[in-house]
Write a structure and sequence with these properties.
Largest sheet: none
Number of helices: 14
Strand content: under 5%
Helix content: 55-70%
Structural class: mainly alpha
Distance between the termini: 96 Å
Order of helices and strands: HHHHHHHHHHHHHH
Oligomer: single chain
Length: 339
């Protein structure tokens, strides 16, 4: 038996279809006023509908049936619902087109325009959010859309491949500030070119640029030399950088006390041994400071009695140090003397 609700369904559907047609006609009319190419109509329709829906959501005003209703009753100067929809939509489309003119992809530009509306015309915040949106849509690594977006923008603006790749890398690893990423990429590129012109290897030039951009000029050369040496012995780029950072940390505290005139930062032996000792404590379960102290002592005791290669001395010092730590483990804080 047909219920009263069943009887109303056909009429409701008819109203909804008619309403959709009215909405489509309004959007098409407003798009013609912009004078833009027809290919941009789908984005305009999306942005127009977004503004329209926001009025419905925030003010509970149906702009289609009550276009002259005030958008914000608390502030009549804001204008009517019709004025807001018809003014905001073309402005958002302009943001979209300007973004494309700056060589961004259409998908990025579409997200950017939506974010501009969401953040009340704060374009800088919208730009950051747009990169964040495509960055978080995939795993955050060098293959995700944010990296590709930044890289391609640079390449399409005739920047070098090195600049483009580093700009993208700095962008997605940092706070998504494109201007800051471009500045860092410029500094990186210049540092690499300068070092290559001096005869540095590619590994050393890039390591030096990496440290300069992220940490500063002091110790950059030492970092680069050590990083290059570790890479040549088969270390991964991450391990080489980590070890070089440990070396620089020790160099900044003890290097000056062992300095020999004319000695290059990266070949300060005592600093290198301290760094090697700290590196070797990983996963051994020993107190790091105690292990490093014993490792350094063992190394220089061996060095004074042998003409072996440094690598052999380091390996021998490791064995002796491990045995010493097992026999006399460091006391924990608060422990008294043992009986």
């Amino acid at each position: 038996m047909e219920t009263e609700i069943d009887q109303q369904l056909p009429a409701t559907n008819l109203i909804m279809t008619n309403r959709e047609e009215r909405m489509e006609e309004w959007i098409q009319t407003e798009f013609r006023k912009t004078g833009k190419d027809p290919e941009h109509y789908p984005v305009f329709a999306e942005l127009f509908t977004m503004v329209f829906d926001r009025i419905l959501k925030e003010q509970k005003v149906d702009a289609l049936d009550h276009p002259e209703a005030l958008y914000d009753p608390r502030d009549p100067e804001v204008g009517t619902a019709r004025q807001v929809v018809e003014e905001d939509s073309p402005q958002l489309l302009d943001h979209y087109l300007n973004c494309i003119a700056e060589k961004h992809t259409r998908e990025f530009a579409r997200i950017f325009a939506r974010k501009v509306h969401e953040h009340c015309d704060d374009t800088q915040r919208a730009l950051v959010d747009a990169f964040e949106a495509i960055r978080t849509s995939w795993e955050c690594d060098m293959s995700n859309p944010a990296y590709a977006e930044a890289c391609q923008v640079c390449l399409r603006n005739e920047r070098s491949e090195l600049f483009s790749n580093k700009c993208a890398e700095f962008l997605i690893e940092g706070d998504l500030d494109l201007a800051r990423a471009k500045e860092k990429a410029t500094n990186y590129e210049e540092a690499v070119k300068t070092r290559l012109a001096k005869g540095y290897s590619a590994e050393r030039a890039h390591a030096c640029a990496h440290y300069l951009v992220n940490e500063g000029e002091e110790y950059a050369e030492a970092y680069a030399r050590v990083c290059e040496e570790r890479l040549r012995t088969g270390s991964s780029i991450d391990d080489a950088r980590n070890f070089a950072e440990i070396f620089v940390s020790h160099l900044s505290t003890i290097g000056s006390s062992d300095w020999e005139e004319g000695e290059e930062d990266g070949s300060n032996e005592r600093t290198m041994v301290h760094a090697e000792g700290e590196w070797r404590t990983r996963g051994k379960g020993f107190d790091q400071a105690s292990y490093v102290d014993r490792f350094v002592t063992q190394f220089f005791n061996l060095q004074s009695k042998s003409d072996k290669e440094t690598s052999e001395l380091l390996a021998e010092a490791e064995v002796l140090t491990d045995a010493s730590m097992q026999e006399h483990p460091p006391r924990k804080k608060g422990e008294g003397s043992r009986p």
